[in-house]
Specification:
It is a single chain. The protein starts with a strand and ends in a 12-residue tail after the last strand. By secondary structure, it is an alpha+beta fold. The chain has helices at residues 12-23, 28-44, 121-132, and strands at 2-3, 49-54, 59-64, 72-79, 82-87, 108-111, 146-151. Strands 1-7-2-3-4-5-6 form a seven-stranded mixed sheet. The protein has one domain (2-151).
Length: 163
């Protein structure tokens, strides 16, 4: 796995250009969904740092209080089958509507059909609960950085196979 430049060595414009290239690997509909979900998450978490991985299995943008992945609260993860919202400490997030999926020790997720899913009250409540449980709080002001964390040379296809 190739380690990419950090925010200290890569300009935001260069990081945005690389990010656009990662998203361009997906089908046009998936590209539009990923971009709209990212915009919605930036509106909800304007001071969070965006940490990007273009890994073997998934394309991921994590939202973190710092540039450290361990300080993240959630991430958007995409593959050829769709986009999900993953809560890093989702097993501890109150979920009275039982919308979170997964049974792991720590992580829980939900599928995102569109950015509008983020507007549902039960999803907003999950995000608020994830923010409340952060060990390091989100900055009160400013704009988070965009950090390309890693890019895998070998990746699963980002587009669905043609039938």
């Amino acid at each position: 796995m190739a380690k990419a430049a950090t925010a200290r060595t890569e300009t935001r414009a260069r990081a945005e250009k690389r990010l656009a290239g990662f998203i361009a690997k997906f089908d046009p509909d998936a590209q539009a969904r990923i971009r709209s979900i990212r915009r919605a998450l930036r509106r909800l978490l304007p001071t969070a740092h965006e940490l990007v991985w273009d890994n073997y299995n998934f394309f991921v943008i994590g939202y973190s209080a710092t540039e450290r992945p361990s300080d993240a609260l959630l991430s958007m993860a995409a593959d050829a089958n769709g986009v999900g919202l993953s809560f890093y400490r989702g097993a501890d997030v109150p979920d009275p509507k039982k919308i979170l999926l997964g049974s792991g020790v720590q992580n829980r997720f939900l599928r995102l059909e569109s950015a509008k899913t983020l507007d549902r009250p039960e999803v907003r409540a999950l995000i608020a609960a994830a923010i409340a449980q952060l060990r390091v709080p989100l900055p009160e002001s400013g704009r988070g950085t965009l950090v390309i964390r890693s890019v895998s040379k070998k990746q699963r296809p980002r587009r669905r196979a043609k039938k």
